[in-house]
């Protein structure tokens, strides 16, 4: 957002209508509008930090379900692999059945991706409205738009529409993860191997949207 603010610095004092119910409500500055998204994306960064923290627990030693009979040192292993808190103390999971069946961090991640996608989608929707003939607040460069086979004079904001559309894919991954986990008794089941594709797809979809939004 800093780069957006810098590029828009000459225009951020511009007064624009603020909307409620998509109707003119009160005058606001363009800066005030941009800073609303700064708040959203700031919360997203905090949320991702919490996801990292929730995943920062070492499950090694849990075995298939009830630990191991080998004389292992779980604390040593956790420290060697970097599963430590801010003070450098090892973070090892406390219950082996929970450790092999826990997918909370995966759910936290797919939820965070969904919410970031939602925020990007709202920003994209604003851009789409602003570029419409009815609003006329903004105009995207031609290289960010496409025409129409029947109406070549049109400048359609395709990248913003793709950002808006792809948010639904992130929602789908989150819903699939929740649905997979909601009916599983303790502890491990083969259903859980589906978590990898859902997490990776959430990441890939969101990263593409972030790249497009950054270019916009």
Structure at a glance:
The chain is mainly alpha-helical and 216 residues long. It has helices spanning 2-7, 30-55, 74-80, 96-101, 104-130, 158-181, 195-215, and strands spanning 15-20, 23-29.
Describe what this molecule looks like in 3D:
It is a single chain. With 216 residues, this protein is mainly alpha-helical. It has a two-stranded antiparallel sheet. Strand 1 and strand 2 form a beta hairpin. The longest helix has 27 residues. The termini are close together.
Proportion of beta-strand residues: 5-15%
Shape: elongated
Number of helices: 7
Number-wise, the strands total 2
State the separation between the terminal residues, measured CA to CA: 12 Å
User: How are the strands of the biggest sheet laid out side by side?
Assistant: 1-2
Order of helices and strands: HEEHHHHHH
Q: Flag low-confidence runs.
A: none
Question: Secondary-structure map with pairings?
Answer:
Elements: H1 2-7, E1 15-20, E2 23-29, H2 30-55, H3 74-80, H4 96-101, H5 104-130, H6 158-181, H7 195-215
Antiparallel strand pairs: 1-2
Helix pairs in contact: 2-5, 5-6, 5-7, 6-7
Name its key features.
single chain; 216 residues; mainly alpha; two-stranded antiparallel sheet; 2 strands; 54% helix
């Amino acid at each position: 957002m800093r780069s957006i603010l810098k590029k828009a610095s000459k225009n951020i004092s511009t007064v624009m209508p603020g909307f409620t119910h998509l109707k003119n409500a009160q005058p606001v500055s363009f800066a005030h509008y941009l800073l609303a998204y700064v708040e959203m994306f700031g919360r997203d960064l905090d949320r991702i930090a919490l996801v990292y923290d929730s995943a920062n627990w070492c499950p090694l030693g849990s075995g298939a379900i009830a630990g191991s009979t080998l004389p292992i040192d779980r604390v040593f292993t956790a420290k060697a692999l970097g599963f430590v808190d801010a003070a450098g103390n090892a973070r090892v999971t406390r219950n082996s059945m929970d450790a092999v069946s826990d997918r909370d961090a995966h759910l936290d991640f797919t939820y965070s991706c969904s919410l970031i996608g939602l925020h990007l989608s709202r920003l994209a929707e604003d851009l789409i409205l602003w570029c419409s003939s009815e609003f006329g607040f903004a105009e995207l460069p031609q290289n960010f738009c496409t025409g129409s086979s029947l109406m070549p004079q049109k400048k359609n904001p395709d990248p913003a529409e793709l950002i808006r559309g792809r948010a639904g894919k992130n929602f789908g991954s989150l819903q699939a993860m929740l649905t997979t986990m909601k009916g599983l008794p303790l502890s491990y089941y083969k259903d859980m191997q589906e978590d990898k594709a859902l997490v990776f797809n959430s990441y890939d979809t969101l990263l593409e949207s972030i790249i497009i939004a950054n270019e916009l």
